């Protein structure tokens, strides 16, 4: 960026030294420099450190944060946030400066429109290895205010225990816990055949639950690997695999709990599935 040669304004007072379209990195720097002293925040701070979502394509408006005592004029393509915690939450020596990952993730979770979106945000950050559940929990507990605090902490504790996706979290809460199924083990190693991890396993009764979320089971090769692991489990360890999708886990959680309970009963579980509410359509 500069003022020599062919230039064009990116924002008032900020110019780029070419006339073509701005790259994503230039858009980020331009927003930070316009609002300076400022830093990338929310999804923009996450995006800049996540190789999974980095690209030169536009990713919507650039989010930046400035000190709460300032007022910065809004500009198209930019969202301004105000914070009293710039000193402890912003890394100023990065290029461009940004909010620390844990707080950026929590900022996005805090503005999420639903609990589903909260789970997706938190579990996605951990699955992408941007941070860990313990770091996020520490950041939550350092905040005086956090919308849905108890829910967020519960989700992070579940993610720490192995519920690595929205679907796994919903199975854990809506199917297993709500209906009194035995406690499962999550993300256990396959142990036989192809290497990998089981979404949910009831090792005492030799039953495996695999949860097919679209993000991880879209292509033919991934689907083939899933089926091969199911076959290996049955052939080499006499373990049955039930593969559940969104419909079974979310739309029909009560009926699914009844069916999983029956499968466990046939394999020796002595317990009984219970209704989660008077309206429960447990089968």
From TrEMBL:
It comes from Gordonia hydrophobica. It comes from the Bacteria. This is DUF559 domain-containing protein. The lineage of its organism: Bacteria, Bacillati, Actinomycetota, Actinomycetes, Mycobacteriales.
């Amino acid at each position: 960026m500069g003022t020599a040669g062919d230039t064009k304004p990116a924002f008032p007072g900020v110019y780029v030294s070419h006339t073509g379209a701005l790259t994503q990195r230039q858009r980020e720097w331009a927003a930070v420099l316009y609002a300076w002293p400022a830093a990338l925040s929310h999804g923009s701070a996450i995006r800049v450190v996540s190789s999974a979502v980095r690209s030169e394509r536009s990713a919507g408006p650039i989010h930046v944060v400035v000190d709460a005592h300032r007022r910065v004029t809004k500009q198209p393509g930019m969202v301004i946030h105000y914070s009293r915690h710039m000193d402890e939450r912003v890394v100023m020596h990065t290029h461009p400066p940004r909010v620390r990952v844990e707080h950026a993730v929590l900022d996005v979770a805090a503005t999420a429109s639903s609990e589903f979106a909260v789970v997706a945000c938190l579990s996605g950050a951990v699955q992408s290895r941007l941070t860990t559940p313990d770091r996020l929990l520490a950041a939550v507990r350092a905040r005086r205010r956090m919308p849905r605090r108890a829910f967020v902490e519960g989700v992070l504790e579940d993610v720490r225990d192995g519920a690595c996706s929205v679907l796994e979290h919903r199975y854990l809460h809506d199917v297993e816990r709500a209906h009194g199924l035995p406690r499962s083990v999550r993300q256990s190693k396959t142990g036989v055949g192809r290497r990998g991890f089981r979404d949910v396993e009831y090792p005492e009764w030799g039953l495996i639950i695999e949860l097919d979320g679209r993000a991880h089971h879209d292509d033919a090769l991934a689907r083939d690997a899933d089926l091969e692991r199911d076959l290996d489990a049955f052939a080499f360890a006499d373990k049955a695999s039930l593969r559940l999708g969104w419909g079974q886990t979310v739309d029909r959680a009560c009926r699914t709990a009844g069916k999983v309970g029956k499968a466990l009963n046939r394999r020796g579980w002595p317990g009984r599935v219970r209704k989660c509410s008077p309206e429960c359509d447990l089968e």
